[in-house]
Amino acid sequence: EVQLLESGGGLVQPGGSLRLSCTASGFTFINYGMAWVRQAPGKGLEWVSSIGDTDYKTYYTDSVKGRFTISRDNSKNKIYLQLSSLRVDDAAVYFCARLLNGFYNDWGQGTLVTVSS
Amino acid sequence: EIVLTQSPATVSLSPGERVTLSCRASQSVTNYLAWYQQKPGQAPRLLIYDASNRATGIPARFSGSGSGTDFTLTISSLEPEDFAVYYCQQRGSLPRTFGQGTKVEIK
C-alpha cells in the first residue's frame, strides 16, 4: 500500500522559513516523480512544485520561484520542500503527491503551514 | 498559464441521480486532463486521468470524456459517498493548474 506522510508544518512569522518533509513507502521511490500541492483554507488546489525521479529536475509555480526549494533523498524515500521568505498567502495545507502518468495518483494527508505575526 | 473553468460551481442532487460536470480549458490540453474528488478534511483522490481513463479502484459509475478544451465528468448514479468537491487538473503545460472545483451536494 502506498503511503505518504508529511511533516514539518507549523506556525511561522511572515518572512520566516520552514522545511516540510514527506516520507514515502509502499512503492519503489526512485521510479517516480513527486510533487507538492497546496490548499489554502476554504480554497481550491494549487500545484506548487515537482521533482523528477532520477533526473532530479525541478519545477515551480511562479509565485514560489526563488523562495521555495524542492529536493529528494532517494536513500531515505523522502522529499522535502524548503519554504523561505514566507508570506501570509503561503498559508495552506501542503500535500505531498506521487506522480503517475503525469498526474497526482497518491496523496498524503497534508501538513498545515500557518503564516502569521 | 492555462485556466480551467469548472461549471456549475455547485449542484444539488439526490442519490441515484446522474450528474455531468464540466471543465473548460483556456487553450488546448489535448487529453492531458484529470479529475479528482475531495471530501472535507481529506486529501484529494484521483478518479480519471488522460481525460477518460479510470484510476485504479475507481467504480465504473465514474466516466470522463472530452479532448482539446472541453471535458466532462459523469457520475451515472450518485451514491451517498459521492457527495464531495470535484476538481479538474491539466498537465498539458506548466504551470500545472486546477479548476476552481464543483461541489456536488445532497438535495
List the helices and strands and how they pair.
The complex is a heterodimer of chains A (117) and B (107).
Chain A: E1 3-7, E2 10-12, E3 18-25, E4 34-39, E5 45-51, E6 58-60, E7 68-73, E8 78-83, E9 92-100, E10 103-107, E11 111-115
Chain B: E1 4-7, E2 10-13, E3 19-25, E4 33-38, E5 45-49, E6 53-54, E7 62-67, E8 70-75, E9 85-90, E10 97-98, E11 102-106
Note the main attributes of this structure:
heterodimer; A: seven-stranded mixed sheet; four-stranded antiparallel sheet; B: 107 residues; mainly beta; seven-stranded mixed sheet; 11 strands; globular
Describe this structure in words.
The complex is a heterodimer of chains A (117) and B (107). Chain A is mostly beta strands and 117 residues long. Chain A has no helices and 11 strands. In chain A, strand 4 (34-39) and strand 5 (45-51) form a beta hairpin. Chain A is globular, with a radius of gyration of 13 Å. Chain B is mainly beta and 107 residues long. Chain B contains no helices and 11 strands. In chain B, the strands form 2 sheets. In chain B, strands 2, 4, 5, 6, 9, 10 and 11 form a 7-stranded mixed sheet that branches. Chain B has a 4-stranded antiparallel sheet with strand order 1-3-8-7, with no helix packed on it. Chain B is globular and about 35 Å long. The model of chain B has no long low-confidence stretch (mean pLDDT 97). At the A-B interface, strand 5 and strand 10 of A face strand 4, strand 5 and strand 10 of B.
